[in-house]
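your task:
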Amino acid sequence: MYLRAIHAESRIAYLHQLIRDNPLGILTTAIKSPSYPLLQTSHIPFVLDVPADTDTNTDTDNGTTTTTTTNLGTLRGHMAKQNPQAKALMEALAAHQTQSTASGALELPDEVLILFNGPYHHYVTPKFYTETKPATGKVVPTWNYSAAQVYGKIRVYCDSKAPETGEYLQRQVEDLSRQAETRIMGYTDQPWEVRDAPESYVELLKKNIIGIEIRIERLQGKVKMSQEMGEGDREGVVRGFEALGSEVGTGIARTVRERGEMREREKKVQSGED
């Protein structure tokens, strides 16, 4: 991910929340295989686990505070065994049998990447830059968006005969269903639960999926919402998106305003005014 300092988002709590609110991640792997493509991706809804007692280290320098989280959390998901990416994972795991873990799963030595997109993104027309466009015309189109990138080692539960695999998959599908029913759908009263389906049916489906678990080793974030522009142009962008009258337009306008205010506060701190 190309990260200009002005667009970089390093607050771990913010990125964790972005993932929780937008759990459909794009898993990318680069696995050398005689049977499958090197690069493969799949859209997978994830559950994010973050220990309640996560340690943080805080350093204060030049008037700014930086907090480093020592445990970035773990992502849990599952894939269909018929997915070519899952087949490539299982093929690679067969060649790394010595990497078995105490939990009965296997972990690949190379990193994988998961991309999570924020809720709003949109083309930005130069017409919105109401300060610079009339003055100099030196403006070009761009695209506003937000995203989080996760890097880590992937652990795979694919032996359907192993008790550890069955336990992991049962926990995974229950937690994912609960997350989607309550957080996404808002069904806090009598949400659908896995136990509502016949047990034999669930067991059959579990035999056709693999569990995946990624221990997060690096977490990067980007929020590109016109904060690099001057105040006049930002206000033009806000008004332009509000005028669209859409949910996306309203969401981007709100985020542009928030990021602009953050930018102005940072400038005051840097100049010693605050």
